[in-house]
Amino acid sequence: MKVLLGIIFSLLFITNVSASEKIEVTLSKCVDGDTAWFLLDGEEIKARFLAIDTPESTNKIEAFGKEASEYTCNLLNNATKIEIEYDENSDKLDKYDRHLVWVFIDDELLQDLIIQKGLGEIEYIYGDYKYLTKLEASELMAKTNRLGIWQDSSDYIYFIIGGIILVIIIIVCIFSKKVRNKVFKKVKTKAKKEIKKHLK
Question: pTM for this one?
Answer without folding.
Answer: 0.68
